Amino acid sequence: MKVRPMVTLVLLVFLAVLGCTSSRAANNAIDVPIDDVLTQSAITRDVTLSVGDTLKVALGSNRTTAYRWTADPKVGDAAILQQTGHEYVRPNTDRMGAPGTEVWLFTALQAGTTTIVTEYSSVVGSDTAPVCTFTAKVTVH
Q: Which residues face 119 on adjacent strands?
């Protein structure tokens, strides 16, 4: 008979501890599909991070065309945010001409506000004006 109250007490303590833990689902990712890139000349996203967080920026891209995102986006304040990685992720299809995704990783170094800016423009010919400019406004706490 004393086992049941003890199990109940342990379960209640476990649930109380679980409820006190941080349940903040860190959505530290920005995803912009290729359709948005091709139909909007400027895309802006706001994101808030904590020091030490990693931010993933994934922008639709199609390497079968002459258009590319700037490989090294401009970070407004490198003391606040540092780029730690960049890769092109191929599409999950064998379809010819299918778009993929450019993915960058950034690490929040210290509190402050900064921006990330990159442009989608042609890498051939004389008209290299961007067809889309992406800006992330980043606040680090």
A: 133
Please enumerate in sequence order all residues whose Cβ is within 8 A of that of 100, keeping only pairs 6 or more positions apart, or say none.
60, 61, 62, 63, 88, 89, 90, 91
* 97, pLDDT greater than 60: yes
Task: Band the pLDDT of 23: cuts 50, 70, 90.
Answer: very low
Domain CATH number, residue 83:
2.60.40.2020
Q: What is the pLDDT of residues 35-87, one digit of tens each?
A: 999 999 999 999 999 999 999 999 999 999 999 999 899 999 999 999 999 99
Domain assignment of residue 135, given as a range = 29-140
Instruction: Give the pair of three-digit tokens for residue 31.
Output: 């995803």
Report the C-alpha gap between 47 and 80 in whole angstroms: 13
Whether pTM > 0.85 for this model: the answer is: no
Report which residue type is found at 139. T
Q: How many CB atoms lie within 10 A of CB 117?
A: 14
Indicate the number of domains in the chain.
1
- The Cα–Cα gap between 71 and 73 comes to 6
